[in-house]
Design brief:
Shape: globular
Number of domains: 2
Radius of gyration: 23 Å
Number of strands: 7
Number of helices: 14
Distance between the termini: 68 Å
Length: 335
């Protein structure tokens, strides 16, 4: 029985989809066990295989999120019955809903805020504390009664989530779900994360900038960068519309649009890594859809810890050696 449940033998089948190291899977499994989401068996006969079974249950949930697979497809990979996998999957989602504040949160103090704003200051956007945008997720099992409210500009039913990300594509805030017909201007009015930035302690933070004459000026209150679909608030800065690229307004707009692509890249990473978001949510209950998106967002931040960081602005016009942007080959030309 222990050989059938060996997680190391089957880990390669899962890893292709969510690209999580064995150490991260073990860390996540131990966290769920310590907090009581995975209960230890009462029978002594099953305690020897308990941790391996727990790892397989965790990896099965990750596989469902990463592949968008059906529950019955996990039976052959894990040797665990479909009902147990189905039951644990929703326990897994509830666990991340309970722990979302540990993985997704706005800066809690000035030290955390400075770590975020430092990157924007280097890009010529002092005072910015994140990028903001709304992502639409296909709602494949939308109830008929909600079809008119959910079918927006995409042409099919969707649910919308407004996300705030930092310069390094870490998700700082998630608000939703909202029906797909709601636009950005409506959602930003009721987003509690934006309200915290507008009316919380960050509205009194002072930041400095250079004036047109080269002097140093000061301003109070942090802001988010966004596209032109948002309200013209001091806390939601968007590019100038129709600005000439050769003017100061054009330079500012081009730079802001370049930096703001971080939130768009985050949405692309989420949908490609967690295929359940890209394939469509097959749950009629909008509450379950919310849990799936929040779990994917938490796991996105969880995986950022294992990525290597560099000071080079990759993808923002600063190439470096062997990055795939340049053709490889001889660097010298023979006469």
């Amino acid at each position: 029985m222990a050989h059938e449940l060996s997680s190391s033998d089957r880990f390669g089948e899962f890893r292709h989809w969510f690209r999580m190291s064995p150490a991260k899977v073990e860390e996540l499994t131990r966290t769920l066990i310590a907090r009581g989401y995975i209960r230890r068996p009462k029978s002594l006969a099953h305690r020897a295989e308990f941790f391996e079974r727990a790892e397989l249950l965790v990896m099965s949930s990750l596989y469902i999120l990463g592949h968008g697979a059906a529950f019955r497809s996990l039976r052959a990979l894990t040797h665990i019955c479909m009902s147990d996998i189905h039951k644990f999957f929703f326990v897994f989602l509830d666990a991340f809903m309970d722990m979302r504040g540990e993985y997704i949160s706005l800066p809690k103090n000035l030290a955390e805020l400075k770590r975020i704003t430092r990157c924007y200051e280097e890009c010529g956007l002092p005072g910015a504390c994140g990028s903001m945008d709304v992502v639409h997720i296909k709602w494949s099992a939308c109830p008929t009664g909600d079809l008119n409210r959910a079918k927006g500009k995409e042409g099919y039913p969707t649910i919308a989530f407004q996300c705030i990300t930092d310069f390094n594509r870490r998700i700082l805030g998630v608000y939703g779900p909202q029906f797909g017909t709601f636009n950005d201007k409506h959602i930003v009015k009721i987003d509690h994360n934006v309200r915290e930035i507008r009316k919380g302690w960050m509205k009194d933070v002072v930041w400095r900038y250079f004036t047109a004459e080269g002097a140093v000026g000061t301003e109070r209150g942090m802001y988010l960068i966004c596209d032109n679909g948002y309200l013209r608030w001091p806390q939601s800065i968007c590019p100038y519309e129709g600005a000439n690229k050769a003017t100061l307004e054009g330079f500012f707009s081009t730079n802001l649009e370049s930096v703001r692509k971080d939130v768009e890249c985050t949405f692309g990473i989420l949908k490609k890594r967690w295929r359940i978001l890209n394939n469509g949510l097959h749950y009629r209950d909008i509450g379950k859809c919310e849990k799936i998106f929040v779990a994917c967002a938490c796991l996105h931040n969880f995986l950022l810890d294992q990525m290597e960081r560099t000071d080079v602005r990759v993808g923002r016009g600063y190439p470096f050696g062997n990055d795939g942007l340049w053709l490889s080959g001889h660097t010298t030309v023979d006469d």
